[in-house]
Write a structure and sequence with these properties.
This protein is elongated. Helix 1 (19-43) packs antiparallel against helix 2 (55-75). It is mostly helical and 124 residues long. The protein has two domains: 1-80; 83-124, no CATH class. Helix content is 65%, strand content 6%. The strands form two sheets. It has a two-stranded antiparallel ribbon. Strands 3-4 form a two-stranded antiparallel ribbon. It has helices spanning 19-43, 55-75, 83-117; strands at residues 8-9, 14-15, 49-50, 53-54. The longest helix is centred in the C-terminal third of the chain and has 35 residues, at 83-117. The model has no long low-confidence stretch (mean pLDDT 82). The protein is built from three helices and four strands, in the order ββαββαα.
Length: 124
């Protein structure tokens, strides 16, 4: 039994006639997001900071998450999976991202304190 794939992106705002057109549409969107990232990386605007990190870094993180979402949603066909499997994948990814952020903040704080105080507790 053949399974029909949904041929729209952006929650139904853009509809395509075939899978090939949908792939090209998603590829165009991902290319646009990547071009914005590269452009911002080249000009490096100084938009201040937010929550202890430069706003530009937050923009890069958000755009990377958007790209990862669309790659998973369309190219890995998560849209066509059951709700339970989608939640399992998303919740696991969110947990791992939060865990990695926690590790980054903990270790970054330690390294900052080492350089600020001018001594080394341990070699790493």
């Amino acid at each position: 039994m053949a399974h029909e794939h949904k041929l729209e992106i952006f929650r139904g705002l853009l509809k395509f006639k075939s899978n090939t057109q949908k792939i090209w549409g998603v590829l165009a969107f991902l290319t646009l997001v990547t071009a914005v990232e590269v452009f911002l990386g080249i000009i490096k605007p100084d938009w201040g900071s937010f929550l202890g990190m430069k706003a530009l870094n937050w923009i890069f993180i958000i755009l990377t998450i958007v790209k990862a979402y669309y790659i998973t949603w369309d190219f890995m066909h998560m849209r066509d999976e059951t709700k339970a499997l989608r939640r399992m994948v998303v919740w696991t990814a969110i947990f791992l991202i939060l865990y990695l952020i926690f590790i980054l903040l903990q270790e970054g704080g330690y390294v900052f304190d080492v350089y600020k105080d001018g001594y080394i507790k341990r070699d790493f």
